[in-house]
Model the fold of this input.
Amino acid sequence: MTSREADPLRYVREWRSRLLQGGWWHSFELPDGSRIQGVSELASQKMRIAQFPIPQDLAGKRVLDVGAWDGWFSFEMERRGAEVLAIDRFENPRFYEIRSMLGSRVEYRQLDVYEVSPRTVGYFDIVLFMGVLYHLKHPLLALERVCSVAREMAAVESFVLTEQHGLTPEQEPGNLLRYFEDDDFGGQVDNWFAPTAACMLALCRTAGFARA
Ligand SMILES: C[S@@+](CC[C@H](N)C(=O)[O-])C[C@H]1O[C@@H](n2cnc3c(N)ncnc32)[C@H](O)[C@@H]1O
Done:
């Protein structure tokens, strides 16, 4: 497909229709060797977390997973030895289901990222904030909340605008934040902003992170 062809977010529509059929989002390996196949591939989940300098041994560390959804990243942090709190704006029954199947002790709370603070959740060595930013009407406020509880680092991952989404090569390095008023983000109605990568880093610095 050429860079500015019809709908560069067609894949989002495909994911959405698969999810609406009632499937899992995350994929999982179960203790008996069987697998749950979600819309998201296990290899992709492993690759996404491997982008961040998160140690394999997290013994003695506290991790917060913001917007955990089915929870694969939470359980992966627990597998590495961390004590984990997973939060999400909506209470997902699949999280309880898979937590039980995995014999996990990850704590799960229904909590909006805007409510995250040292008073409500305490402090964490690592905060995962993956795949959530572009779902938010107040991305900078959310990053401030994430920064307020992160002691060592936050893994911030987002959809970012590129040339594929209509940016010119001159615009791409700029601090641009595109706003989606309707469902023009692949048919999604809960996607509001998409930053360029440079913008995302700038937002993180403004939110209080010493280095991004
Ligand atoms: C695209 S999923 C990302 C799931 C997972 N973190 C990942 O990267 O695979 C976005 C998740 O963020 C949650 N979410 C959206 N807005 C939120 C908010 N204001 N506070 C907390 N969670 C939110 C959604 O309910 C959903 O579970």
Remarks:
- The CA atoms of residues 44 and 50 lie 10 Å apart.
- Residues 10-20 form the longest helix (11 residues).
- Residues 53-207 form a domain with the Rossmann fold fold (CATH 3.40.50.150).
